[in-house]
Every structure is written in structure tokens, then in C-alpha cells.
Amino acid sequence: MKTLLSIGCTIIALVTLAVTNDVSTTQKAKRSKLDRAKVAENFNRRTGGLISYPGAKHGKIVFVNAQSKAPKEWVNDIAAFHAKELKVDIEVANGTFQFPNPKIEGNATLFIIDDAKMPTILHAPEQRWTMVNVATMTDGNGSKPAFFAARVKKELTRSFCLLAGTQTSNYPESLLGCVTKPSDLDKFADWELPVDIPERFLPYLAGFGIKPDVLVTYKQACQEGWAPQPTNSAQRVIWNQVHQMPDKPITIEFDPKKDK
Questions:
Q1: β partners of residue 92
Q2: What is the pTM for the complete model shown?
Q3: 50 - beta bridge partners?
Q4: Which of 29, 90, 176, 183 suits a disulfide with 83, CB 3.0-4.6 Å?
């Protein structure tokens, strides 16, 4: 009887501990979210938030989806990720791929196709396009949904790297390592890129006429004289501080000894 009671108490203690840990984790997550919100609020109050520099962002890359085997959400995920990382315009559109002279959309185009007769990736740098073929990614484990999804996203990223002028990394075990068949993609943990890659994209893409967004604080824009009219109370305070007339007139004292 004592043994059963002891076991029961142990189980209750373990359940209580698990619930307590779960509550503690939830509370930490809430505090972290509140802390981030507070930091953002303080930043916006002091600076007026971030706005885009006029004319900085122009040109665009278009992902032309010419297949239906891979869900469009996968294509959207990759396009949105790189657009956010590089602060450039990347659009996704439905279309066709007419080899060897496909119609280029935007300043540069990445085509996604499903054709068993075509290779996995084609790259035509002078014509400003690359092509990814999802038909080649179902051999072996690629027939399983999770493997197929991972391979498609990894090859989309690898093809984007070619389009943006980079095919190697200082990190040989990264996604830009050697791949000789689709199953080689399975050895990479995910489809994100090492830190040395994105900084190489922008100078190359500038040759296509693609330039990133440039963000500055509203306060800096006011000080430089090009800020738009304020849209919230924090910006109005900063606007008034920068544009207010001085309390005392500026005076210049003449010192004959110094000004000879």
C-alpha cells in the first residue's frame, strides 16, 4: 500500500512539474514578446520608425511558375524569404517556359517547370534567367512528400543563387556545396544560405538594374530635409523638433584680433 501511495505521489509530482515547466515556458515566451514590443515602441518613439529612401528600390526579379506538381506556396515561401533578406522586389507569376528562348519577366527571371526531358537546373546568365525542373526530384526518397518539398525549396534557392551571381561559399558544407544528383540535396539541413552569400548578390544584381530598399529613420529623413509629412504622434514630435524656429536668434560676434 505504501509503495502504491509512493508511486502515486511520484506521478503527481511529475505531472505537476511538467505543467509548471509548460506554464513557465509560456510565461517566458509572453515576456519575450512583450520585451520585443517594448523595444520596438521605444525605437519608434525616439526615431519615428523606419521609412524608405526615395528612389532607392527599383527593378525586380520574377519567379515564373510554369508547373503544378510543387504547390505554389513553396515557391512563394522562397520568393518572400529572399525578398526580405535582400530588400529587393521579387514577384511570383504564372507563366510558361519556352526553351531555348523563354520570355523574360522583370529584370531577371527564375522559371519553375515540370518536364522529365529537361535537366534539374539551367542557367543562362547573359539572357538573365535560370530554370528549376521539379520533375527530377522524385527519385529515391524524393517520392516522399517531406523529401520532395525540401528538395524543391533547396533547388529553388540554389537556382536563385546562380541567377544572382553566386555559386560558391566559404562554407563547403552549406547548400552551395557539390550536388551531382537530387538525392545529394538531402544531406543539407535546410534551404537557407550561409552568411557569406547574400552580401555577394547585390553588386551582381545591380548590373541587372535591381537595387535594394534603403531604410532610414524618420528622424534622419527630417534632418536631411526630405521626410514626408508625419503620420503618427511620434513622427509629429520629431517633425516639430527638427523644424521649430530657434528660441534665440543666432548672433555672430566680431573679434578684430581674430579676424585680421
A1: 63
A2: 0.73
A3: 217
A4: 90
* Furthest C-alpha separation in the chain: 107
Determine how β-strand 89-94 pairs with β-strand 60-65: parallel
- Which amino acid makes up residue 258? K
Which one, of 185, 189, 186, 196, lies nearest residue 161 by Cα?
A: 196
Distances (CA, A) of 29 to 21, 39, 215: 12, 15, 29
pLDDT in tens, the chain (260 residues): 556 556 655 666 555 555 555 556 676 666 676 678 888 888 888 888 898 888 888 899 999 999 999 999 999 999 999 999 999 999 999 999 999 999 999 999 999 999 999 999 999 999 999 999 999 998 777 678 889 999 999 999 999 999 999 988 888 788 888 888 888 999 888 888 888 888 899 999 999 999 998 888 989 988 888 899 999 999 999 989 888 766 666 666 766 666 55
Structural domains of the chain sorted by starting position, each given as residue range(s) with its CATH number in brackets: 60-206 (3.40.390.10)
- Does residue 256 have a cis bond before it (omega within 30 degrees)? no
Secondary element (H or E) of residue 14 = helix 2-47
